[in-house]
Amino acid sequence: MNPYVVLAAAAAAWDRFAARLTGPPRDRLAELLAVVRRRGAAETERREAAERAAELLRERFPEEFGGGPDARLAGGLLDVVADTDPHPAYRGFSAEDFAVLLMDGHRMVGPVLGPVRERLLAEPAWDADALARQGGDPELPALIRLPGEGGRRRLPRFQFDLDGDEAAARPVVLEVNAYLAADRDPWGAADWWLSDNAWLGTRPARLLGAGKDRQLADTARLLMEEG
User: Fold this and answer.
1) How far apart are CA 32 and CA 49, in angstroms?
2) Which of 27, 141, 149, 174 has its CA 20 to 30 A from that of 187?
3) Nearest-CA neighbor of 110 among 126, 128, 91, 123?
4) How far is CA 82 from CA 8, 61, 79, 111, in A?
């Protein structure tokens, strides 16, 4: 059985068993998943970690992943994926989605939200330490902070104006982020800035520094008022 599809199935079934995944088993899974998602790791190393993680899931939750006739995922559901498929999906979920749920602590996973997560995390960003080295304040209220790999916070760079070597938060970004409730929904706020906007005719982030601050703020305010 391909271990990656077991991990993908675990992401799909997360709500059924997450509350029971605690203590040392959860910690051990996190250690193994860190290897599975490690950039540049040899595939043999990643595969071994995936197999150990899949076995842990089967042992801990046989009713979900045991493969017996009474298991939820029995009946060959996990065996339909060819073992030659290096990183298969299960119902639109992936092994990376399981790592996101367990290690990164958010629910931007699955066939709909997973691609949004990947797109937004691919945008230029600083982590908190790098921003501090640029003279910025990563704890400034209203900034968008996206949990990246391992839960490490990523602050999209469009939020800042580089004055020489120092990064200063753009006042209009802080105003708009407050309208968009970026503290509660950083993904939604980031998606607003980085997606094409029919009212503005482009991505809002592209209008920063173009004398459109009032239009940006008014557009975000009207959006939230209508919502």
Assistant:
1) 5
2) 27
3) 91
4) 14, 23, 7, 20
Task: Give dist(CA 222, CA 227) in Å, integer.
Answer: 8
CB 101 within 8 A of CB 148: no
Contact assessment for residue 93 and residue 12, using Cβ atoms and an 8 Å cutoff: yes
Determine which helix (DSSP H) or strand (DSSP E) holds 48, and give its type and residue range.
Answer: helix 43-60
Residue whose entry in the numeric block shows the structure tokens 């949004």: 116
Residue 21 is classified by DSSP as -
| Residue 155 near residue 127 (C-beta atoms within 8 A) | yes
| pLDDT 10s digits, 128-141 | 999 999 999 999 99
Q: Mind giving me the DSSP string for 117-186?
A: HHHHHTS-EEEHHHHHHTT--TT-TT---EE-GGG-EEEEGGGEEEETTEEEE-HHHHHHHHHTTTTT-H
Between CA 168 and CA 15 the distance in angstroms is 40
Please state the φ and ψ torsions of residue 109, each to the nearest 5 degrees: -135, 170
